[in-house]
Batch of 3 targets.
Target 1
Amino acid sequence: MRQFKFGSTVLMAVILAGCGGGGSDVPAKPKLSSQVSFGDSLSDVGSYKVGTVALLGGGQFTINGTAPENWTELTAVKFGLAAPCAAMTGLDGDPLQGFSVMPPTTHAGCTGYAQGGARVTNPVGVGNKLTGGANVTLGMLTIPVVTQIQNFLTGNGGSFKGDEIVFVMAGANDVFMQAALVGGGLAPASGVAAVQTAASELAAAVKTQIIAKGAKYVVVVNVPDIASTPQVTLLTGAALTQTTSLMNTLVSAFNAQLKADLPDSANVLNVDAYSASKDEVANPGKYNLTNVTGTACNLTQPSPNPLGSSLVCNATNLTTGVLSADHYLFADKVHPTPYGHSLFSLYVLQAMTNKGWY
């Protein structure tokens, strides 16, 4: 079984146990020619690193400037592949509020299709200007995952070669959107049905547009434990109780439907980000985490920061007393720090090792 270093044998043992162990009775690992990723902000390697965002030292939803930062960048390093780059960049913001309109631009040879705010099929995702409010200022593109996949196929002759590693991680923004609708009066059962539909649509896209088009190594990542993020845990009183319950219900519904519709197979490896993230918050010491409740980034800086997001976070605008090298789990209220990304990259790599893919 292949091993890799991460500074602490204790930490490595924890991640190994979390992935269900491993053994020597695994098939010979494939030689991967490239890495392709589809999804949302958790896999976005720079879709919005243009215009004002770039000038502010941002571009990824984490602490920027400490590359490699995103978990997909870290896996590419381990595979011996070139650093992933965003397949499409752009912003549709409001110049009157300090953000330039940057027309969508495709980048040949780049296979990081994930975009912050993206949902599974609905083009109006979190941060899209059509959702109103501060989102009009920034204007994230939020190209949905099904379109991301189609864009890849269009640019690559309609198929995968079969020796790529393909990452798919989506669903969190569908959960956020439905949670907002429930908060506005939508029946909870309708929110559950909507996220289940999104999960089924994602599973169908993987089967018909990725595997059926030639991909042999597809890693599908479920939705992390949103109820354990500062977005929820920093609430108080009834709001904390109600939001925790709602998020748990919606995330569980999405993840269960996705696993039911897309179980592990010869071509599919499901990775349980939900359990991994939940355990990191519950047992931070095991992962050398020093803070799992606060945000490493000062979400009011730099100005403008219309979304209060780590998209424009870097070493110059961290929370007072925090250093880039500190082992905070969260950069902002939902996105991990580079250290948090490194933990998840190891979790994915170990799962791939157990399957014989790494």
Note: The mean pLDDT is 91.
Target 2
Amino acid sequence: MKPHTGRRRFMADLTRAVGTSLFLGSPLISRSAPLSHPKAPLTVGEVMELILKTIPNAPFSKTVDTLKSGKPEQAVTGIVTTMFTTTEVIEKTVAAGANFIIAHEPTFYNHLDETDWLKQDEVFRHKQDLLTKNNIAVWRFHDYWHSHRPDGITSGMMAALGWEKYVDPANPLLLNLPATPLHQIIAHAKSKLGIKMVRVVGDRSQVCRRVLLLPGAPGGRNQISAIQKVRPDAVLCGEVSEWETPEYIRDARQEGQKVSLVVLGHIMSEAAGMEWLVSWLQPKVPGVKVRYIASGNPFTYE
């Protein structure tokens, strides 16, 4: 071997050896610190646990917020928030590549999602088969979302309406608005919440300042008790039993009180809260896409 050839080979071997030594001795990579592996995807149960850590006194011993389909250990490919797990929402969830639905209301047509009475029903079986076939987990998120501080549904409704600055410091459901005719308040609520039609007991031309928001269906006694306590000019509520709060408002007006009732509808009074859940939850589950799919209002109006 010629001297200069041997020297070239020696220098090449030395360069490779030194380079390897420097690479392995780097603080970023060494023999004692193996390459990190990608983090395992979150499971349904882990997402639920992460959410419950933010809810006062959770988990509750009695709650309707249970898994309606799926298993806690299944990996999450994407999350959908919605009001109702309709068959259409399920199909859109599958198309979006997601497999975890967080819904505010029941999946199987009753508050407790009891299904024994539906075992032979074709509508029930179709929905259940659709969930099972596509490995979709469904978690009801009702009691916990209302128990969040502030209430998640109310927060979403306020944000959608753009009325956060008018919230009474002593009552998160009471607004102190500039003097506004009721018909303008109604038009604003319909536009911002996507409501086609409301029902009104009272005077649409009435000038209102104190407005009480009661989304969802807290029940007639709770609604009337809240009205008695704060004495609002107007109440914007979700759902009513026609023999309860509307009759109370009618008699109150006959007695001389200046109060009006606007019935927005249960679904659309709360939907903004489930849409708002996306922005609340997304930072807590990096790497998992969270999106809102509207279940919408099933009613048409003649």
Note: Residues 44-148+271-292 form a domain with the Udp-n-acetylmuramoylalanyl-d-glutamate--2,6- Diaminopimelate Ligase; Chain: A, domain 1 fold (CATH 3.40.1390.30).
Target 3
Amino acid sequence: MKKVFYWSMLLFIFSIPISSYVSTKLLVIVFVISLLTKASGKRSLALEMRKSWDILAFLLILIIGLINTDDIETGFKVLETSFSLLALLVVFTRLNKSEGLVSHIFISFMSGLLVACLISLGTAGVSFIGSGNFQDFFYYQLTEVIQLHPTYLAYYLIASITYIVYIIFYNLEKKRMSAWIAIVFFFFLMLVLTGGRTTYVSLLLIFSFFILKYILENKTKEKAIVFSVVLILLVSLFAINSTTFFNLKFSQHSDYWERSILWKSAILANPNPLQGVGTGDYKTVLNEYYQSHGMKEYAIDSFNSHNQFIQVYFSNGVIGLIFLLLLIGRPIYLSMKSQNILGILLLFPFVIYGVTEVFLGRYQGVVFFALLHQIVIYQHYSSKPSFALDAS
């Protein structure tokens, strides 16, 4: 039973970048199997779940928010979208402590991501041959075949690049180094094609970290390789952003546009700063505000605030915002406490993502955050963290 549970979990993780439809079905299956799987030793489900109390508290806030909600249907859809937070919490409580677990998880995820990228790029190439339109390689057209929003593909790519660069830098992967570096360059190419300019800030911060670590620490062959790769990618990033061709493509199809009007609207439309408008009424109330303030185009597209922090403040008030900050901040704090650099590098970008996107508003964002959150919690409470500050 444990082997079935373990391999079904890895299959679910593999499917995340490829298909949301398949991934959600597999998550339910893995969740059910986890409930039937006994953990080793005297670990109880209730005791293990306490380690992720921040997730339980945030979900409780969403449930309480249904009390103020007139649109119950939308409220339950929000809870349905957030199901992966609870499901992965339970799944990780059933996993036995293993030094190779995190590595297996990332290899499964990156394998699925590689397949998703190849499908997207191959489909775009076939479409380009027929149409001669370079737009087939960019943004929505690129990821349409796998029905994945390009912004979330960019999140996945940045996390994967970070993981690969990290394991090479700290000499945690001594084999297949050339293959790993080739994958980094391929993922970087795909990242450029997503047009995710707002995610570049995260990439710059991550690259800056490795450059500083190389300068300040003892030099090794692996660190020199990472330093060279990072410099090449940084130069390429700045060169691409200064190229007229790519600027034209990004201006036509990218995630770079003015969001301040949406932020301001969501803040001003909130009639109850303490409790918010309710878990399910955010669309109705915000669209009414758009209509009454001459922003009908936003109401037609039913835009949310495009800011995770403002969105939670709008729907669940200051109380909800506090628990959201705990949800994001606690695993980062635990990573700092256990000197887990990888945890910090993987989770801190969500602070940046949260400024420009509602990443907990889509399954693709929730499930990825939930996965990284539980990896960090697992690492912190493991007797031997795999990724320590002084890994070298």
Note: The chain has two domains: 52-81+258-392, 97-256.
